[in-house]
Queue: 3 jobs
Job 1
Amino acid sequence: MANINFRRQPNAIVTAISTALIGGLLAACGADSTPPGAKAPAATVPVVVAEVVRKNMPISVEGIGNVEAITSVAVKSRIDSQIVKLGFHDGADVTRGQMLFELDARPVMAQMKQAEAKLASDNAHYAHARDQDTRYQDLLQKNFISPDAYNQIKANLGSARATVDADKAALENARLQVEYATLRSPINGRAGRILVQQGNIVKANDTVALATINQISPIFVSFAVPERYLAQIHAVMKTGKSAVDIIASGNDGGEIRTRGELSFVDNSVDVATGTIRLRASVANKDAALWPGQFVHTLMSLGQQEDVVVVPADAVQIGPRGNYVFVVDAANKATLRAVEVERSTGRETVISKGLRGGEKAVIDGQSRLAPGATVEIRQVDKQADKGT
């Protein structure tokens, strides 16, 4: 019997240890379990809010514009010659009257000297003809010659005078040819690439320009807006306050803003697009705008007074339309359906659904549900509430 008890003793020990372990685990699970029917506490959602304000909002219309040079000059030669000197480099800023190209002027200078010599010779003949006319007038008065003889002398004087006048015109033309040997900039602007280099032969009025100069300051911005704004545009132009904001892309994704004045409204509506073409003049003293550049335009058409405004980030789009999450005094989120009247820049005008002074969620909406408790991380109270 003693041997039999000895063999069963290890099994009894294992059984006791297993029972103790299972009991401990069950006790631990029972300590952390939630009683049946109890609700887990709801987690708060961190959000960023902004105050809904009432203020005056400018009425404006946006568009896509294109920058255009007011004046663009294609530099060409007026004489046949060879380029012997350049007065600028690619992309240089040039001023009115600055020498751009110097052509070989020796052939036209020789022609000018020939014209000067011919004028001197014909002036001598003209002087002789005048002397003859004076003498023959005296002879005619004394009846020493016939009227027909004097008429021949008078005709010679007229011919000599006409020859001198023709020589003067030829000399003036020769001097112009000499001036044409120096090509100067007709405007202040910026030169493009030099298309014909020093040493090349150029032809008068060739189809290929030597270079192109664009006026940079001031500059035009052309853009189009829907025709429904035409009456408002005419009303604004009558007041003389037709400002246009020009927004161009800057470095690192930033924006470059400048302001111009509406200077032109086209005389017809584009029937294909239903838009009217406009043009603004911009001082562009810092050369921020460049010919050919695409920009955004924002034209002010007046002011709307005392309207409800929220940041554009607060407005979300759902299956039933636009909505905004509003946070109440108990920090509970409420989904509010809204009607958007228009957007201007980063602000949106709400015509229905919000009141001034409420708090609208502008960040964190993706984690929200109606009735959720929120934790306001930042409150952006807009200081500009209009006047």
Job 2
Amino acid sequence: MAGSFTQPVDANAVLCALENGEVLHLFLDEHTLLDSRFRPMREATQLALPLKGPLNDDIAALFSALPFSTELATRHFESSEPSNNPHAQLHRTIKTWLDTNADDEEKTALLTQLPRKWERLGDAMVLPEQAFQTPQWTHLLSRCSQQQIEMLWQSVAQALSANRLGRQHAVASDMFRTSQTELLYGDNGWVEFLDHGVRFGFDFTRVMFSSGNNTERRRIGAISMKGEVVVDAFAGIGYYTLHMAKRSQAEHIHAFEMNPDAIEGLQWGIRANDVEQRVTVHSGDNQRNLPLLYGKADRCHLGLLPSSEAVWEHAVRCLKAHGGWLHIHMNVRENEIDTWQASTVDTLKHIAAEHGRTWNISSTHLERVKWYSPRVRHVVLDVHFEDIHGMNDV
């Protein structure tokens, strides 16, 4: 019966405080360590998540990099019925398709090469770039008719409870870092969904969206910005602009974006979240447009990867005379984070001094958002600027 569970099974687990459960779940998923055959289990003030593989020093070292404590243990987990497990459902669905479209000797290898992760965007599911792209799958699909291939993509979408299906490809090397996600099944790429109570809409075949930044969007929206003027130097579709406008309650946000496809999504989100009176969109190159806001902002958000350093000077100059905040996104090697944090503050002090600002500058918080690649972290540094003498000209 759907929703029922079998008897508990012993499995390896990692435990954390309940409030860190979402971050740990995303971390395990990114490292393909989450054993989705079992149901996570709450224990008083802790959450136990099932782990693939053995408990060893390598696993312990990986978890030691997290900004909160974890514990490795063995627990009794309830095992989900196959019908409730998307990986098992995908396996069964593709096996059925292979029964009529592949030779018997091919099936075993092909079934071991199915994707293990994917990203949901509204009613669409986006597969990773290498999904169904191994040499064996490429060889099989080259022999199939267009109708057979279309049936495969339809089957995958249905197995994952999606109405549309896409597959990621490398971001374009153009100035907009355009998404090149391939639409495999469905009529179009426009998606709409809620993210922590904020509505988003965009074409996922033309604009990138990272679900892995979920915790940072939640964090930035939880910061009170009442009465503040905010500059979002790389607004995109409003990843952070919309959270700051709706949840942080900023008085006004100046959202800078140059990609027309992203602006389409941003403007849709502004209307959908009823924040038209509190967001101004500045289209075009922010190197030319940011000087329009010099001395006007209480806070600047710099959400560009791998580095936002090209606009640090503009951002400092956008702050009001009494100071304010910068939120600096960056990709940094894990073993260089402390050095980068210190050097960033030094660089900002130098910029401020060059423009006659007598500010006390301090890094108040560093958020480890996610692993960007092996040993490289996406981090966000919160930097506070405060006038030492309270005498800077407005």
Job 3
Amino acid sequence: MKDIDDSIQINLFDAEPGMALYEHKFNLQKITEQLLKFGLTPNQAKIYTYLGKYGPKTAAEVFKALQLPRTETYFILNLMQGRGIVTAECSLPTKYSALPLEQTLSTLVNTEKEKLNTLTQQKRDMVQLWDKIPSFVIETNDTKSEKLQMVQGSELIHIKIKDMIKNAREEIVIFCSEKDLSRFYHADITNMLSDSLLDFKIIISPAQRFPTFLKGMDKKAIKVMANSDSENQCFVIKDNDESLVFLRNATHPSHNPFAVWADSKSLVESMHKLFEYSWENAEVCH
């Protein structure tokens, strides 16, 4: 079978709306975006999808078709070969091929698992080593101060909320939009609440009905505020001693959430009073 013409190869990656190949280009872009979540860089993902759809190619064919720097292309091909997702044929010039997508994803996932296992062990070793070193700071009522932490990005924010749930002794309350709650659901935060022995309350604002994705959760613990313009408000309170307040929540146009965590007593009490007032005026889910 003849290789697909170079002009067609370029058109697939550079196709404009209205062209027959644009739908395929759009799908490749979605795959490329997903590959970034598995640890590939944009150019690595682009080279992988190119090799995967056009078959074995030399490095020269790759950087010409994708209009990438020559040196960077060689570097990426060798790097991806080392990661086990690209193979090289024993030929002159060398031709590179991409492994099947399912095999590639399994390889990338297993690599991340190995990294996680290694970091977990290193964490134990570091904690043991740290505990062996005596502490020379004694915290008293005079030296204890309130703390504040900036948290940016969904992943770090979700980790912070999970830590609050894990360390809670009595109660977690959440005020959020339905879009925020959907993200919490997909991050397993709502499952953590359901599986815990904690008392929890959730206010969804604005909303009119119980979200279908929360099937199985106690409806008595969830209320909605239908007539509300507070879609941009979201906060979490733990045991009335910690709060996480979103300055940019899931509804923000930037799609880059930003929150402030604090253990300030005055701030936490104020936010908790706001939640209790809202709870009294919210409606039970049906």
